[in-house]
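Researcher: We're teaching a course module on how sequence relates to structure. For the next exercise, students receive a sequence and then see the predicted structure as tokens, so they can try to spot secondary structure elements on their own. Here is the exercise chain.
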Amino acid sequence: MAHPKRKQSKTRRNKRRTHVKATAPQVHVCKETGISHLWHRAYYDDDGNLYYKGKLAISAE
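Model: And here is the predicted structure for the students to work with:
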């Protein structure tokens, strides 16, 4: 297996890693309930009802 001849400098290492970063999750506020949730995810309101795309998917009886 090949080994590097010289140690790679911190500058070259950091240049390679410039595109590696964490992104904040996209949060959406529902127009129906006013609850913030992740995009394209189902979410529960305070009463226990399950919503998806602003529509009631499963009601809590």
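Model: If you want an answer key for the exercise: Residues 24-61 form one domain. The longest strand covers residues 55-58.
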